[in-house]
Amino acid sequence: MLDDFMTRAALAGIGVACAAAPLGSFVVWRRMAYFGDATAHAAILGVALSLALQISIFAGAVAVALAMALTVTLLTGRGYAMDTLLGVLAHSALAFGLVAVSFLSGIRIDLMAYLFGDILAVSRGDLAVIWVGAVLVVGLIGWRWSALLTSTLSPDLAHASGIDPRREQLILTLALAITVAVAIKVVGVLLIAAMLIIPAAAARPLSRTPEQMALIAAALGAVSAVAGLQSAYVLDTPAGPSIVCVAAIIFACTSALRGLRA
Amino acid sequence: MSLVSVQNMSVGYGATRVLHDVTLAIEPGEIVTIVGPNGSGKTTLLRALIGAVNIGSGRIDRATGLRIGYVPQKLHIDPTLPMTVSRFLRLPGGATRAQIAAALDRAGVPDLSDRQMSGLSGGQMQRILLARALIGQPNLLLLDEATQGLDQPGSAAFYRQIEEVRAATGCAVVMISHELHVVMSASDRVICLNGHVCCEGTPEIVSAAPEYQALFGTGTGGALALYRHDHDHSHDATCGHDHAHDHSHDDPATKAAE
């Protein structure tokens, strides 16, 4: 079954959708959309470093994404607004990454594959990395679910219940770095934030509780992945962007539904 | 043993010193009110008690088995976060359906369980916040201007509920309030804060203290006297004061404490 590249691609897309759904919900609730974007952009520097050091792309991307996210968390509130800081760090990391890749003259790299993903070239090994990463992210968020929700509602309520919101923030940051690293192959660093935010945002009008929103987001993300791949096959369009397009259309539909109800 | 004891605590944000040399202790079952002008560090003190601010110096000792129920000034829930009232009440510890129904009943809002948190009115939100704080069966309840945004009957009912809860569960209550005449009369002890503890003691002692009168003037002392007067009356039928006068000051807030 895994011999078929379309099957592998669909499974990879579903894996990323499952990890992105609960995490993306938190990104939406905590208004971290730009934070997710910045972490993802920084990952291209990780890709360049991994190629230079000949280590696994996954490890390099996780390390740089994590370093980026931690730096932003530490620097926030020290004289710069969050969005300024993210703008500086994200685009610097992206630029340094692109420059670093150009120094790697010995290796031929298809940069486009990292910027926009190359889901049709997912190997069995990639698939294993994606699914292990997805299980890790879902496990991490599921384990801390109540504490994360309480911290998201109000850090003070969390403190009063004996929860340290900073620790929960770190857990989200770690989950974000892992998700970015596993999603590079599927949608590329430029569109990862779309996989995080669009299914979660599309699920919002259909949900009454946080749990429903995360589950519906996972379902919508998986549908986007499969339908996006199908349309890419039929219309001969790039796969990663096609997946995001389907997700965007679903978002438009659920938003219109809410408009009709209201 | 004290539930919480604070010794020589100082707290600052950057170069600003908010609290200094604060020493106080909260005993089981007492109702303590913290009063003080704006910027006197009341909220910071409460947040220090729950462990939400880093203290600069001094120490805070919490009794083992301390369960804190915290009611913030207000809670903004992002409209992107779907959250029913009953789901909110189950955060983070979890509660049974029966516990939730009982908590909503006690809070006087039995029909709200399926409503979205973001659609609640200010008064409903405060009641839900109190219901959630009580679900964990706290032995220390902390209220930060919990009646902000409530009208007078609403806040009177709110304080009445606090007293009922204290009577039923024996939990200690520490509250911040601007409604001096209400909280002063409902408290066992008042702490007057202005960066440090200016004075503390029973409501009578504090309202007569020069430090307190320097901060709030003597008018609030009058309000307290009115309350005591009213209260005496209910126990002493022979008093000969003017009832019309009493009704002209028929402040629901004073009833809260009865």
Automatic annotation (TrEMBL), chain A:
Involved in the high-affinity zinc uptake transport system. The chain crosses the membrane at residues 6-29, 41-68, 88-107, 128-150, 170-201, 213-233, 239-260. It comes from Roseovarius atlanticus. Keywords: Cell membrane, Ion transport, Membrane, Transmembrane, Transmembrane helix, Transport, Zinc, Zinc transport. Gene3D superfamilies: ABC transporter involved in vitamin B12 uptake, BtuC (1.10.3470.10). It is a multi-pass membrane protein. InterPro entries: ABC_BtuC-like, ABC_TroCD. The keyword Zinc applies. This is High-affinity zinc uptake system membrane protein ZnuB. It holds the Pfam family ABC-3. Belongs to the ABC-3 integral membrane protein family. GO terms for cellular component: ATP-binding cassette (ABC) transporter complex. It is found in: Cell membrane. The keyword Zinc applies. One of its GO terms (biological process) is transmembrane transport.
From TrEMBL, chain B:
GO terms for molecular function: ATP binding; ATP hydrolysis activity. Pfam families: ABC_tran (PF00005). Residues 237-258 are annotated as: Disordered. One of its GO terms (biological process) is response to zinc ion. Residues 4-219 form the ABC transporter domain. Keywords: ATP-binding, Cell membrane, Ion transport, Membrane, Nucleotide-binding, Translocase, Transport, Zinc, Zinc transport. PANTHER family: METAL TRANSPORT SYSTEM ATP-BINDING PROTEIN TM_0124-RELATED, ZINC IMPORT ATP-BINDING PROTEIN ZNUC. This is Zinc ABC transporter ATPase. It comes from Roseovarius atlanticus.
